[in-house]
Amino acid sequence: MRVSYAIVFVSDMKRSVAFYRDTLDIPLRFETPGWTEFDTGGTTLALHLSDEPSVPGGDSDHLPAGRCRWGFCVPDLNGFHVKMTERGVPCAQEPKEVFGARIAQYADPDGMGFSVSEERQSP
Prior knowledge:
alpha/beta; globular
């Protein structure tokens, strides 16, 4: 079994599309006012417009029901981190070793956290 898609409920579709497409550089598959899809190379990332407002300042370690956290993998975490910092993306954890992997934590425009790890090199 594999993850085929992840749905992220957003408060502002245009702002979120710009973030995922332009800031994170994820290829846009298609966009509508209520539903947008991105191609992440095997898993679809879908944005769904929500009527519920986001709750700023929530505890990112205890996410309420209805929210999610996912992870991306990049070949060069340091380079990715520099690009995100330059683009003003909030960083909750700078790149560091966690359980044998290099990982960092960021937040999207609605404050939802996501992880980014570095691809492991073969020995």
